[in-house]
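Page 42, continued from yesterday. The earlier attempt failed because a stray header line got pasted into the input along with the sequence. Redoing it now with the clean sequence only.
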Amino acid sequence: MCPLTEAKAMPTYVTLLNWTEQGIRNYKDTTERAEAFASAAQRLGANVLNLYWTVGPYDLVAVVEAPDEETATAVLLRLGGVGNVRTTTLRAFGREEMSRIVAKAAG
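This time it went through. Structure tokens are written below.
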């Protein structure tokens, strides 16, 4: 593939979510809220790749791609501002990214 036409992968973020009291009271709307979150993320230039409802210390896990940290933060601020969840976000690195990081660290 030509470097000029090759699509650059966006950074990936893994977000761990916990429902607030408001969010758990409105659990019946969770799938609709998930769709609204994905739509809002897309309007801001990000993509929700996966969203999982989980059992354990977190209620949901989202995998999001965004072109930069500012966009990722804006998406998550908008999500948190609705009041249904609190988030903890991790920057995730794919295999190719990690290979470049290791090569850079090795000198």
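Notes: Residues 30-43 form the longest helix (14 residues).
Reminder to self: strip header lines before submitting.
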